[in-house]
Design brief:
single chain, 340 residues, alpha+beta, 4 domains, five-stranded antiparallel sheet, four-stranded antiparallel sheet, 12 strands
Length: 340
């Protein structure tokens, strides 16, 4: 009886030891139950699935550098024996494959950009002495293009902005367009500085030209001095120079190609007004000298005289006088806005 008890105790102890060994083995990943994945297998499966997608993300080629490197890392992960090994291999793989995937996307985007730009007829015909600087910035779903010198055709700009391959690139592209060539050479400060300097100078010239045409700066040039007099001893409405007479002179002058005009010291711009209050003429809401009303007009003299001489005949019929004097150089003041 005592011998049976000892056998029972030994059998129980063996069962307990076996159970403990199984528990410890499962805990350290050495033993798994039928149909059960070990922690290392779970970690490996997740890592392989992530890397498989990362290696070809945004790529159309299975033989890209990122895809080939991904296959090497997958083999390394399959050989890993512990969860820690899988973690270390996975972290290193993500860093390398992310960089390679970004580089692959950028190479494909640059090739696509080069294809679009070289097919542009405006680029082929570019013949300016200065280089044009174009900046393309991808944003994931679309891109923005800075082309202030209008070196690219509108259709090319639209194609670049909406191209999905270019939009997925992870870096901006800098293009230098010269006569007969397109250069993708970012990081050349001297080239960029020269292109941007030329662009800035052109923008400044455009601003100055626009301000001059808008009347916001002084203007010089050849033209006519037009002087409008009331009729001698005028007393009736028709014998006095009024706003309509001044407006007729201005309208005829600008129709004949005048580039600028000034009435009694007031520059004429798109928003200018000419009004009469009794005998007082207001230009830009300011009173100007009358009898005579002096009008300076810059433009081609013969064209201006041809347009204005018929008005002199009309003035004469009511006794008013319209005189013209050629000037080789006239200077018009800049427009000054009335502050309410």
């Amino acid at each position: 009886m005592g011998e049976l008890n000892w056998l029972a105790l030994l059998l129980l102890a063996a069962i307990v030891l076996l159970f403990d060994a199984i528990v410890i083995g499962r805990h350290v990943g050495l033993i798994s139950l039928p149909g059960e994945m070990r922690p290392v297998d779970l970690a490996r499966s997740g890592a392989l699935a992530y890397l498989s997608g990362l290696a070809v993300e945004g790529q159309g080629d299975d033989d890209s550098e990122a895809a080939l490197a991904g296959l090497d890392w997958q083999e390394a992960l399959r050989a890993a024996r512990t969860v820690d090994d899988v973690g270390r291999q996975f972290a290193s793989a993500v860093v390398e494959l992310s960089g390679l995937a970004d580089a692959d996307r950028s190479r494909r985007a640059e090739a696509r950009l080069h294809e679009l730009v070289e097919a542009d007829p405006r680029v082929k015909a570019y013949s300016r002495d200065s280089s044009a600087y174009v900046l393309v910035t991808p944003h994931g779903t679309s891109s923005t293009v800075q082309d202030r010198q209008n070196a690219l055709a509108r259709a090319t700009l639209s194609a670049i902005e909406n191209d999905p391959v270019i939009a997925r690139a992870t870096e901006a592209f800098e293009l230098i367009i010269t006569a007969g060539s397109v250069s993708f050479e970012p990081g050349e400060p001297a080239v960029q500085a020269a292109a941007l300097s030329t662009e800035i100078a052109q923008l400044r010239a455009d601003v100055i030209h626009a301000m001059a045409e808008a009347g916001l700066t002084e203007m010089e040039g050849e033209g006519l001095v037009v002087t409008a007099y009331d009729a001698p001893q005028a007393w009736s409405f028709q014998e006095i120079v009024h706003e309509r007479d001044v407006e007729d002179v201005l309208n005829a002058a600008f129709a004949a190609g005048a580039t600028g005009a000034q009435v009694g010291g007031e520059r004429i711009v798109a928003t200018s007004s000419v009004r009469c209050i009794g005998p007082v003429v207001l230009v830009n809401q300011r009173p100007v000298a009358v009898n005579p009303v002096k009008i300076l007009i810059i433009g081609e003299q013969d064209a201006l005289l041809k347009a204005l001489e018929p008005l002199a005949d009309r003035f004469a019929r009511s006794g008013k006088i319209l005189e013209f004097r050629r000037e080789a150089l006239l200077r018009l003041d800049a427009f000054i806005r009335v502050v309410q």
